[in-house]
Amino acid sequence: MAEYSDIRTGRHCVFLLHAHLVFVTKFRHRIFSDIHLTRMEEIMTAVCADFETRLSEFNGGDDHVHLLVGFPPKIALSKLVNSLKGVSSRRMRQEFPELATHYYRGSKLWSGSYFAGSVGGAPLSIVRQYIEQQNRPV
After folding, report:
1. pLDDT for 1 beyond 90
2. CB of 6 within 8 A of CB of 56?
């Protein structure tokens, strides 16, 4: 029953929806260190809160990030992704000017594509464990 502790309710529904998202940097540039990923998690947590979603798990490497997001059925995942990528790109450029040299044409941190997988086949504990085990650069 522990897997169902995240069940949420809306006005007319009860739901347990999670998506595993992966964003990669433009041209897979290896630019993130632990300090960047820590700040990125804070930014993405705030964006998720604005969308009434939850960032359940976050981790990444020097050229990508993994997110486990719990979301209500009224949210269009593509809009959430666009906001996560746009806001994080803008804020990271402002707060870490040294990253701007790796931005494509001065404004694009992320590749235009992304991975979104519905989480349901594997227990959430396995997906959380997978994300926790992603290597953070030193």
Report:
1. no
2. yes
Fold of 2-132: Alpha-Beta Plaits (3.30.70)
DSSP string, 67-127: EEEE--TTS-HHHHHHHHHHHHHHHHHHH-GGGGGGSBTTTB-B-S--EEEE--SS-HHHH
pLDDT digit string (tens) for 31-78? 999 999 999 999 999 999 999 999 999 999 999 999 999 999 999 999
Query: Which of 45-78 are b and which e, b meaning 16 or more Cβ less than 10 Å from the residue's Cβ?
Result: eebbeebebbbbbbbbbbbbbbbbbbbeeebebe
User: Where do the domains of the chain lie?
Assistant: 2-132
Distance CA 73, CA 51 (A): 12
Tokens at 3, concatenated? 């897997």
Which amino acid is located at 21 in the chain? Answer: L
Q: At 52, which helix (H) or strand (E)?
A: none
Q: How far apart are CA 93 and CA 125, in angstroms?
A: 33
Nearest Cα residue to 27 out of 89, 90, 104, 96: 104
